[in-house]
From TrEMBL:
Listed SUPFAM superfamilies: MetI-like
GO CC field: plasma membrane
Superkingdom of origin: Bacteria
Stretches that traverse the bilayer: 20-38, 109-134, 155-176, 196-215, 236-259, 265-290, 297-322
Keywords, in A-Z order: Cell membrane, Membrane, Transmembrane, Transmembrane helix, Transport
Domain (ABC transmembrane type-1) ranges: 107-315
Subcellular location field: Cell membrane
Protein name per the record: ABC transporter permease
Assigned protein family: Belongs to the binding-protein-dependent transport system permease family.
Record membrane topology: Multi-pass membrane protein
Biological process according to GO: transmembrane transport
Length: 330
């Protein structure tokens, strides 16, 4: 297929994904709005906070009227969607600041944690899974599979607490939480990197078993393909056969696995941030859930959904780029 044809096919993929993304985002927004509307929490009292105990009923009624809480639900939903389209994400009742400010201040740390942990998990999984497949049935293969199944059964928050107990409290190698030392007067990248070693490692290890086992099985299967057997028959070095032929074939379905695994990665990041007291979206998500902060919860859910949809689109395009035989236009 020509380059112009590939570009046209990529445009068709984007259009099809948008046709799916719009109803998914609409359904997500409706679900979040319905949950907020069904909540027994009075938005006026929640906004007033401690002052609600001394505020008069007239003042609370005025707050409800200003917010349109007593309007019909379809009117409230359309007004909320209109504000979202204009960039007004609402007011966070748990943080007492605009939702957009909360997201802009904390989303970067969450993306950093997820990006580094994902890269570490992918590189480690490709290397370890390929080596296990090359020596299938050997001691390294059996030990790796045993470790993967064991880690796979451990909740990510338990891994985080165990890492803190061993590496922070017992050995004192790394900080137990936060991004900087308590006595620090400024933020340096070296200090941040030192504080992120444990949370990044925990998140990467918690997600790696799925990738390791998949790569191991996929590479082991591709080792029996004709082109791999031909490469071995030509006397090519084992490293060339493994990484240059077998692993390349196994990478295609691996890309799909990465795309479908992103929601669990995001959920794991929320728990890791909470355990290690990181200033990302995880802590504020938990606080918003406990405090019934509907505007913040809805915004985080919609943003996360949009990121996952965009990642799935990127996965489709990467799959097609890796294998020119894949048709993008149908």
């Amino acid at each position: 297929m020509t380059r112009s044809g590939r570009l046209a096919g990529a445009g068709a993929v984007v259009r099809r994904r948008l046709l799916v993304a719009v109803p998914v985002l609409a359904a997500t927004s409706i679900g979040m709005f319905a949950l907020g509307a069904a909540s027994p929490v009075d938005p006026a009292k929640q906004y007033a906070g401690a002052a609600a105990f001394t505020a008069s009923e007239e003042n609370l009624a005025q707050i409800r009227a200003n917010w349109g809480v007593d309007d019909p639900l379809p009117v409230q939903y359309l007004r909320w969607i209109g504000n979202l389209v204009q960039g007004d994400l609402g007011w966070s009742t748990s943080r007492h600041e605009p939702v957009a400010s909360v997201l802009s201040a904390r989303a970067g740390w969450t993306l950093l944690l997820i990006g580094v942990a994902l890269a570490l998990a992918l590189v480690g999984s490709l290397l370890l899974g390929s080596l296990a497949a090359y020596r299938r049935g050997g001691l390294f293969d059996r030990a790796l599979r045993t470790a993967a199944y064991a880690v796979q059964s451990m909740p990510v928050f338990w891994l985080g607490l165990a890492a803190i107990a061993v590496f922070a409290l017992a050995l004192g190698w790394f900080p137990a939480g936060g991004l900087t030392d308590v006595t620090a007067t400024s933020t340096s990248w070296a200090d941040v990197a030192h504080h992120l070693i444990l949370p990044v490692g925990v998140l990467a290890v918690s997600q790696a078993p799925w990738f390791v086992l998949f790569v191991r099985d996929a590479v082991a299967e591709s080792m029996r393909d004709d082109h791999v057997l031909a490469a071995r028959a030509r006397g090519l070095p084992g490293r060339t056969v493994l990484f240059g032929h077998a692993l390349r074939t196994a990478l295609l379905p691996f890309l799909t696995l990465v795309g479908t695994h992103l929601p669990e990665l995001v959920g794991g990041a929320v728990l890791v941030e909470t355990v290690f007291s990181l200033p990302g979206l995880g802590a504020v998500t938990v606080a918003a859930a406990l405090g019934s902060d509907f505007p913040l919860l809805a915004a985080i859910t919609l943003v996360t959904t949009a990121v996952v949809l965009a990642a799935n689109l990127t996965t489709d395009l990467a799959y097609a780029a890796a294998d020119p035989r894949v048709r993008l236009d149908g």
